[in-house]
Amino acid sequence: MGQIRRRVIQIETLEQRLAQRAQEFRDRAKAMPPGVEKEALLQRANQAETGAHMSEWLLSPRPQALME
Hints:
about 0% strand
């Protein structure tokens, strides 16, 4: 018998969740000393923000060229 798929209803939009996650990464990185782990958290924060912006851009009524 197959697995039962767990359904989750999202209350916030993807963009909101990504922006919130980016802020969490930045807050955690702020409390860390300089090093590889801090840089990794900051990179993940940048990736989450980029994902949020890309999603907003794709959902806009008339997506504009990226290099205007």
